[in-house]
Amino acid sequence: QVQLVESGGGLVQAGGSLRLSCAASGIRFRIDSMGWYRQVPGKQRELVAGITSGGSTNYADSVKGRFTISRDNAKNTVYLQMNSLKPEDTAVYYCHADYGYPYFTPYWGQGTQVTVSS
Hints:
By secondary structure, the chain is mostly beta strands. The protein is built from no helices and 11 strands. It is globular and about 45 Å long.
């Protein structure tokens, strides 16, 4: 059974940094794209950053230049380095992965809380 387990969330002051990690287990085939989403109460979940199996990345405009997504395919792990954090970055962050054969299925982590104080 495929599971995504996030770690690294917490409370940080504005301007600070956090690094999120998401490790996938139960993997037998190649993971396609991976990414990070976030959600605040009353709003839809939004894409923060994504990365393909080949390493191509994309970011939400609100985090460009501050956040960096990376992955270690050998460890089936995706990371999100978050710098210059702002109070508006406060949210539950979810890891996402497209995985499966012959068709990709979306998998989600349980979420990790990131709180940025002003």
